[in-house]
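In practice, a research group might receive sequence data for several interacting partners and want a quick structural hypothesis before committing to experiments. The following worked case mirrors that situation: the sequences arrive first, and a predicted assembly follows.
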Amino acid sequence: MNVTERAELQGFAKDIRKLTILMIGELGVGHIGGALSIADILAVLYGKHLKADPKNPRAADRDRLVLSKGHAGPALYAALAERGFFPKDWLHTLNKGGTKLPSHCDRNLTPGIDMTTGSLGQGLSAACGIAIALRLNNNPAKVFCIIGDGESDEGQNWEAAMFAAHKGLCNLIAFTDFNNAQIDGTTTDIMALEHLREKWAAFGWHAVEVNGHDVDQMDAAISLAKTRSDRPSMIILNTIKGKGCTFAEGKVESHNMPVTMEMANQAIAALDA
Amino acid sequence: MESKEMRVVYAETLVRLGAVNKDIVVVEADLMKATGTGTFAKAYPDRAVNVGVAEANLVGIASGLSTEGKIPFAATFACFASRRAFDQFFISANYARLNVKLVGTDPGVCAAFNGGTHMPFEDLTLMRVIPNLTIIEPSDPVSLAALVEASVNHKGCVYLRLQRKPAPILYPEGEKFELGKSKVLRTGSVDGKPAQAVIVALGALMVGEALKATDALAAEGMSVAVIDVLSLKPLDAKLILEWAGKTGKIVSCENHQKRGALGSAVAEVLAESGKAYKFARIGVNDEFGEVGTQDWLAERYKLTAPHIAVAIKAL
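A structural hypothesis for the assembly, expressed as tokens:
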């Protein structure tokens, strides 16, 4: 990756963070921690790797994304708005009655959202179904899926993990946002995910671990995953919950927290400094 | 009366429709042998997906397939389709407004030797509260084939409650069926005598018992009509009220808990009509399932013709 491209992706990630903080600040409360921990992967996907046309969000040849940790919707809305899927004005409507941007992703409301998610553990199965359908249609598009580390407690993920490997779904590239925090505490304390990479590898996936805030590492990992022709890929993103936000970074309690406009403005100013 | 194995009809229908409609995909959870869709897998190997013993994943994968325009028929025993994969069907399929056809086999006492763990007396109650879901239980091979085809053509989720075992053919080949419509199978059981009561029955087993009950009552000079419900949701309230009006006496019959499914749906329609009717429900009375032959269980839970006849006479 050259210097310009890196700067662009990092700038995109910063914009996603600023808009996410603003949205949640305007609302007064939100899932800020887990939204900010995926800002960088969203920038790498929507800035480089995920083929999509904002003017035709259901184009057949697009790559699909299932944000299984649907509560991180605000970060994805920020990325989609930046890419022009819908007007940025919409971002002021997060969670308000009648909005097209609900707390959890909804494929029927928001242009660019491919699957309705929010009940944790269900997205990877849907991504498998999409991958099978693309294969049936001889469609070379990829399916990306982002699951959470806390979400990995849900057994359905592991049903899907077995299935995807058994079917050799090489068009499926999944990510685990490993920010080591779930609602009640750290994943280490609540439900340890030790040897997570080895678990996915043992299930038959191409599994790698990268720094989820390093655009170069993620870019390289996705490029490699795209070349796999035999099995699905799991890219574990080591991340920090609330990354880049002064009041949320590294805090378990940032999962869903009250945010005032004053806090939001300070955090945005710090990102710009 | 000639009978046909319902699972064979189900699979044959999908094979026939699948030849033309390439979007039809069969999704199974290690019960392909039970469901009979091996014939579909043989005809269209790419469009038959077996997910193993994993019902949550079954419904999740079906939902993903549907986002791409596929028409998945996901099947498993009705107990697992409803109790185990309820949230997946609720959120990933229905809340997401997708087009998943979920097939629950071995309803109620049809689970027989699989016993109480496998005996769904509550699947319809669970499914009925899912907004906008279409719920059908065909009564014979002809209605099954027609309603599978109607499900393919319907854009939206469907729950198909399917008895796999043989069922007598009740309708002539070519009879037309629609989602949301019931059929008057018998207008009365005594020649020239208007019906004095109507049985509203759901599914092959209960429609069969209802017909037997009307034969028994006819021998005593009582004329009884039979409505084959076919569609629990939407319920054909207009037809039910029409016959409630004609007879004044209604008995609902289901191979299921009395609470929350057909009996409740009919009671709601009758109560909200503003008119007074005599009404009774045949169904399982707040009990769990248990093991036995289907015939023994049908008697054990008082689902058989004599119990229906007694209920009618008591009105």
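Before designing any experiment, note the following. Chain A touches chain B at residues 66, 106-108, 114-116, 118-119, 121-122, 124-134, 136-137, 155-156, 159-160, 162-163, 166-167 (CB under 8 Å). The CA atoms of residues 211 and 238 of chain A lie 5 Å apart.
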